[in-house]
Amino acid sequence: ISQATAYRYLHEGIDVIAAHAPDLHEVLERGIESGWEHVCLDGTLIASTRCRERSESGHDVWYSGKHRRHGGNVQVLTDPTGYPVWVSEVAPGSVHDLTAARRGGILGAL
């Protein structure tokens, strides 16, 4: 099969999996039912060389000055054992972790 066909099926598969993933509130409710005493929230930069976009002020929104590279900021919520239970949508790399958590509604849900 061609590379284009492979990518189309890859993205269709990811869409099906994402449609079945629980939302943040469901994950937190399950955690309460399971007796979790805490959760951990951490942001990470997923590096990429294919994303560039200028803001109105002229800076590249996908460039992370902290990591000195381009990429997307993803917030990961883990259970008390460190197992990932929820992942946010991607934010531009220039967005600070706390800002990304606020925009994604994570802090309000916690």
Quick summary:
With 110 residues, this protein is of the alpha+beta class. It has 4 helices and 5 strands, in the order ααβββββαα.
Describe this structure in words.
This protein has 110 residues and is an alpha+beta fold. It has one domain. Helix content is 36%, strand content 24%. The protein has four helices and five strands, in the order H-H-E-E-E-E-E-H-H. Strands 1, 2, 3, 4 and 5 form a five-stranded antiparallel beta sheet that branches. A hairpin with a 4-residue loop joins strand 2 and strand 3. The model has no long low-confidence stretch (mean pLDDT 88).
Task: Give the percentage of residues in beta strands.
Answer: 15-25%
Please tell me the total number of domains: 1
Reading the helices and strands in chain order gives HHEEEEEHH
Rounded average pLDDT? 88
| Assembly context of the chains | single chain
Euclidean distance between termini CA atoms: 45 Å
Main beta-sheet strand count, sense and barrel state: 5 strands, antiparallel
Poorly predicted parts: none
Global Rg: 16 Å
**Helix content class:** 25-40%
Q: How many β-strands, per DSSP?
A: 5
Which term fits the overall shape?
A: flat
Topology overview:
Blueprint: H1 3-20, H2 24-34, E1 40-47, E2 63-64, E3 69-78, E4 84-87, E5 91-92, H3 97-103, H4 106-109
Antiparallel strand pairs: 1-3, 2-3, 3-4, 3-5
